Amino acid sequence: MKLAAIDIGSNAARLQISTVLHVDDITSFKRVEYVRFPLRLGHDVFTFGELTPESEARTTKLMQVYKLLMELHEVEGYMACATSAMRESKNGPEVVHRIEAATGIKIHIIDGQKEAELINNVVVQALDDRQYLHIDVGGGSTELNVYLNRQKTASRSFKIGSVRLLEGKETKGAWHKIEDWVEEHVDASRELIAVGTGGNISKLFNLAAKTSELSTSLAEIERIRNYIAGFNLDDRINKLRLNADRADVIVPAADIYISVMKWAGASEITVPDVGLKDGIIQLVYSQLAKKKRLPL
């Protein structure tokens, strides 16, 4: 069985197709296809308040491509979710309605709480009983979640993200709100480990020296951030070989991860290779499993 997830963010839209595996009553998912395309919807929404006809046309074409890929893979179930840019766009509901009419792809505009929940469902599997602060930085929003004994104790979505910072459109007082929230909900008397998800922290982690297979230090993230910031945009693309849509947002994204870690007193960050798309696939499977009485 193959399942698919479409994640339409403020910077890029992703399609992931995974095969469902069953071994000794344990269900897991193996990625067989992954496509990422830089729609950059956040540029429109954070600047004009709505999606332009050009962005709608490009999104429609991309959904047609994703639909064909799902058909070729004979996907049995899928879900498409749109996050910060689409939910803040004044014409977002109209756009997703027209896209569904043109492509048959139904897009769910999810709020920050649902977005965090879907990501948390896969992140929590990598945690132990220590205190963790999960930081997920997207193009338009940042989700923070505190865990203790693998139980979520606090959660909040903030209107600050890599594209929003790049455009200078972060909401007033957003940095102070995050700092105050972290101070209120993190137990300073306990050890804290940060958990980072999102495309930018994954790229930073790939470039950093590791303290373990899935971890690196705050100091190393700062070093990589400053190294990249020392190059202009063209050199980031040509010399560092960063994708164009990653090269301009990776430093603003790094600033969010670094600031939150400092406020929380976290000297180490774990970067599991999971994200919203994995949470969506897990949700699609759980819904199908109930209908078909499959193992959970």
UniProtKB/TrEMBL annotation:
GO terms for molecular function: pyrophosphatase activity. Signal peptide: none annotated. Residues 29-281 form the Ppx/GppA phosphatase N-terminal domain. Pfam families: Ppx-GppA. PANTHER family: EXOPOLYPHOSPHATASE, RETROGRADE REGULATION PROTEIN 2. This is Ppx/GppA phosphatase. It comes from Fibrisoma limi BUZ 3.
